[in-house]
Amino acid sequence: EQGLQLLELGGSVEQDYIRIARCFEATRQRCCRLEQDGRRAREQLARVEAERAALEVKLKHARNQVEVEMKKRHRAEAELEKQERKLQLVLELLMREPWGNEALSKEQCSVLSALAGRRLGAALVPVKRSSAVDESCQSLLSHSDISFDRTEDDVVRS
């Protein structure tokens, strides 16, 4: 009778061991899947970080290019203003000097009068930005909307 009980216990213990072994195997397989998922996530993170770094370099170059172009534009506008002022002075001189009207034909005088009228009127109004630049998309991207705030660049990434 005791032997039979031992056999029954042995059979029950053996099944318990098999169940435990199956649980360990399922846990091991789950750990392997989680390890693979972690490896894939690390690889994806590395790709995204590389892409982010490349985009930051592009952003830096774009900011520098915008800054260079803005400086060029300001210089060109200053030169334009200077040349317009010179033209205005020449026109005023030609229109006011008695010899200027005599030396020029009537057609030339009328053209100069028209130019002088526009230039003298424009001289009273501050010079606006060059109209040569197409600013039809101004609401979407305007040079005045460009921010050079670099606080985002200084954020320490953890």
Automatic annotation (TrEMBL):
Residues 38-97 form a coiled coil. It comes from the Eukaryota. The keyword Transcription regulation does not apply. GO terms for molecular function: GTPase activator activity. Keywords: Coiled coil. GO terms for biological process: mitotic cytokinesis; mitotic spindle midzone assembly; Rho protein signal transduction. GO terms for cellular component: centralspindlin complex; cleavage furrow; midbody; nucleus; spindle midzone. This is RGAP1 protein. The lineage of its organism: Eukaryota, Metazoa, Chordata, Craniata, Vertebrata.
